[in-house]
Amino acid sequence: MKLIREPLSIKQQVAYGVAGTIGISALTEGLLRSPVIDKPGLPIPSAVLSESIALLGNSAFMTEVWFTMRQWALGLLIAAIAGVVLGGLMGAFRKVFIAFELPVEFFRPLPSIAIGPILVLVLGAGMLPLSLTVAIACMWPILLNTMYGVRGTDLVAVQTARTFGESALGVFARIKLPSALPFAFTGMRVAASIGLIVAVSAELLIGSGDGIGGFILLHGSVSTDMDPIYAATLIAGVIGVLVSLLFVVIDSTLFRWKKGLAQ
Q1: pLDDT band at 53 (very low <50, low <70, confident <90, very high)
Q2: Calpha distance 252→255 (Å, rounded)
Q3: What is the pLDDT confidence band of residue 10, given thresholds at 50, 70 and 90?
Q4: Predicted structure pTM score
Q5: So where are the chain's domains?
Q6: Does domain 44-262 have CATH number 1.10.3720.10?
Q7: Any transmembrane segments, and where (predicted)?
Q8: CA-CA distance, 87 to 83, in Å (whole number)?
């Protein structure tokens, strides 16, 4: 008899994740405070947590967090528009796919951080080159998921639309692209986490001292106290987890019908 395991709810997943995090933190705390490991530069979880709470109450630091979130959101928006449009067209029309296949395969492996300095030289310092760096990194999972989603459109629906005289562009706009939206959103969920990593990294490497990355860079250059740096990194990680959970909730709410189709 085959046992069917019911999938865990979002609340259960969060509970297990929190429990695992607390367990790992407690183990790390014990090891770092014991004579087994004597490394003064390593972060003690309780000290980092305390510093994180202090930073969250610091209005200047929260301004930097807001800067990071704005440039991340703008980059993700640009990537979503470009990825859905180009991915949809590449999935629906063979000539478009052939025309863009080589450029996509050429630019996709390039690290967006390496393109960032070029954008700064062309556009100058500020939020725009940082957001475009994020957009370049985020576009590929959205583009590919949308393309494969369009290609996986139900052929019966496509043939029915054509039977009723729908044009190729009409089939794309009314049938193929809407059916690919769940796939595109999955790409956005993956891209959101990637984008936040790239956002902070870009602030560290090509930024002008703004954002979470700018805070880490400036604090590290003027102080030997590592706890604020670890705390800022922790806060960026927590933001990433919250963003991922938000996308999971939106996905399960807007595209609940996917589960029924999968079954």
Answers
A1: very high
A2: 6
A3: low
A4: 0.83
A5: 44-262
A6: yes
A7: 72-93, 113-143, 190-209, 229-250
A8: 5
